[in-house]
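Chain A, query sequence.
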Amino acid sequence: MRLELITIVVDDYDRAIAYFTGALGFDLVEDSPSLTNDGRPKRWVVVRPPGAETGVLLAQADGPRQAEAVGDQVAGRVGFFLRVDDFGAAYERMEAAGVEFVTEPRSEPYGRVAVFLDIAGNRWDLLGPSDG
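Chain A, predicted structure.
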């Protein structure tokens, strides 16, 4: 058993793809035409960190209820966690790419951490090994 995908509701497929592949360095795994349950066209868009098994399904909001969820999928909490081997390099690269960090990097018992916002406004932890 494994967790294959999680969904993030976004405003626009192409802007979300550009953010996840450009600013975060994810791979675009799939971008295929698909249909909603009632037969309207949509896309099946999956991005994934290099070497990871679990991917992120980018789902463009469809209707007012889904549009309201954009950026608030976990009620303002950090809901997504991106672990990297080199925290300093990842932080610098992401900051240079325009990623909005809402906390300064800090050390915790579990390692280095800084909170950032994705393109939709969801909070993520960037996590890395301890400095020591």
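The helical segments are 13-23, 64-69, 87-96. The longest helix spans residues 13-23.
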